[in-house]
Amino acid sequence: MPRFRTTTMILAAAAMVTLAAAPAQAAPGDVTTTCASTATPYGYVDVSWGYSASCGTQNFNPNIKQIKQLTGLPIGTVVQACGSTYYPAGWVQTSSYYSSSCVAWPNSGFNNNAWTLKRVS
Fold first, then answer.
1. Which residues form the signal peptide (predicted)?
2. Which pLDDT score, from 0 to 100, does residue 6 have?
């Protein structure tokens, strides 16, 4: 019985790592939609938020997000991103602003919630 429990725990841990990993075969600049409960992988930024019943909530709060793969984009590339996640090394914020598509939390007001990012290295 302890061997079965250990094997089950290892398989469960492996499944969680797989779910948290970056989307398979994503090319630079690709955009993927995921449930908001999934952490944004390193090298990606959130680019918009929305609601979908497929992500399992009964209210209409934002529960899905689109994420964009930044890894591999050339130096000088400029992208628009939500301020709900950190941007990767090699990118700098050149401006911040309010975007209705970046409202990740209800009643968050009209504060700056989005960035213009530029790849510098």
1. 1-26
2. 38
12 in any annotated domain = no
Q: Which residue ranges of the chain lie beneath pLDDT 70?
A: 1-25
Give CA–CA dist 87/83, Å, rounded.
9
- Which residue stretches of the chain are H helix? 2-20
How much is the pTM?
0.76
Collect all residues with Cβ–Cβ distance below 8 Å to 27 and sequence separation of at least 6: 69, 72
Cβ 33 vs Cβ 65: under 8 Å: yes
Instruction: Tell me, yes or no, whether 51 lies in a domain.
Output: yes
Q: Which two tokens stand for residue 59?
A: 């209210």
Distances (CA, A) of 89 to 27, 57, 94, 95, 119: 18, 34, 14, 17, 9
Give the strand pairing for 44-50 and 114-119. Answer: unpaired
